[in-house]
TrEMBL record:
Name recorded for this polypeptide: Protein-glutamate methylesterase/protein-glutamine glutaminase
InterPro entries associated with the record: CheB-like, CheB_C, CheY-like_superfamily, Sig_transdc_resp-reg_Me-estase, Sig_transdc_resp-reg_receiver
CDD domains, per database record: CheB_Rec, REC_CheB-like
The record's account of how the chain is modified after translation: Phosphorylated by CheA. Phosphorylation of the N-terminal regulatory domain activates the methylesterase activity.
Length: 345
């Protein structure tokens, strides 16, 4: 069965480019195009597409405002097309918070006929068709409630490692909103472009009680700190031991198609933290993190996987569960409490 796709973009030329890219995949059918929110609304009602590709900037109602309304009234998998500049990254993060399946760099579509670009876009659209977007509340959450854990004390040497990909932006906001200001040192790999991670770290820092920052080489892992791996050029690992662990940013080829890779992080945590560490693998496409989490479990770490019902894409946690890396599967809302309990004094 083909993936019925609606293209929403105010540029006729861009509509043609997107259509050509999508139709390179025989599994995708372009059922219509729209140049504005009003046209898109009518087309969605008439055509009931499996996936919508949506431009961020449109005349009248913006793509972000239309996305918010669509996810509230008629949840549909949406792939946002935006420029991955600093300004575009902010808009893309907002789109991901509002329920977009993922974002794709629009400028790549205009740069010739790169087969890799085409295959990445079509893979994203096919994956979006299999996702399960949920209805959104009338008001978009801007500051999730931070749970009070005044009596919480982390165990000396305890730490948390987390991996996420597609759907991870919203998942991490929800999970970290349950962390106290004195949470165990926490390291995170979230698959996203380099232009996204500074903005995402800053956004998490505003929304959550702990201090969240983009990791830098040599940064000591400290209580109350959350370290987000920078996107793009290097892998994040940990170095040191005991209460003197630190972040390492290391050169290396992509692992499972990603740099930074969750597997690289988890393997380093297994080697240097062992039973002191606790890990969670969240929503995401592919298999990154599964083998590293298995190594962690083999070294005595407690490991958690997000369950299928609450995952936007039940890929990474599914593979981890299948190979025996996950000790316990949980809905997203319960993972923060279990991570903290495993690290408590």
């Amino acid at each position: 069965m083909s993936v019925r796709t609606l293209i929403v973009d105010d540029s006729m030329a861009m509509q043609a480019i997107i259509r050509r890219r999508l139709l390179a995949d025989p599994a995708i059918e372009v059922v219509g195009t729209a140049a504005s929110a009003d046209e898109a609304r009518a087309q969605i009602k008439a055509l009931d597409p499996d996936v919508v590709t949506l431009d961020v900037e449109m005349p009248g109602m913006s793509g972000l405002d239309f996305l918010e309304r669509l996810m509230r009234l008629r949840p549909t998998p949406v792939v946002m097309l935006s420029t991955l500049t600093a300004q575009g990254a902010e808009a893309s993060l907002t789109a991901l918070e509002r329920g977009a399946f993922d974002c794709f760099d629009k400028t790549r579509l205009m740069a010739g006929t790169d087969p890799a670009c085409t295959s990445e876009l079509t893979e994203l659209v096919r994956a979006a068709a299999s996702s399960r977007p949920a209805a959104r509340p009338a008001a978009v959450r801007t500051a999730p409630p931070v749970q009070e854990r005044a009596s919480y004390t982390p165990r000396p040497g305890a730490m948390i490692a987390i991996g996420a990909s597609t759907g991870g932006v919203e998942a991490l906001i929800e999970l970290l909103s349950g962390f106290p200001a004195n949470c165990p040192p926490t390291v995170i790999v979230q698959h996203m472009p380099a232009t996204f991670t500074p903005s995402f770290a800053a956004r998490l820092n505003r929304l959550c009680a702990p201090t969240v920052e983009e990791a830098r080489a040599g940064a000591p892992l400290a209580v109350g700190k959350v370290y987000l791996a920078p996107g793009g050029e290097r892998h994040m690992e940990i170095g040191g031991s005991g209460d003197r662990r630190h972040c390492r940013l290391v050169e290396g080829d992509k692992v499972n198609g990603h740099r930074p890779s969750v597997d690289r992080l988890f393997h380093s945590v297994a080697r240097l933290a062992g039973r002191d560490a606790t890990a969670a693998i969240l929503t995401g496409m592919g298999c990154d993190g599964a083998e590293g989490m298995k190594a962690m479990r083999g070294c005595g770490s407690m490991t958690f996987g997000q369950d299928k019902a609450t995952s936007v894409v039940y890929g990474m946690p599914a593979i981890a569960h299948q190979i025996g890396a996950v000790a316990e599967q949980l809905p997203l809302r319960r993972i923060a409490a279990r991570l903290l309990a495993e690290c408590a004094a």
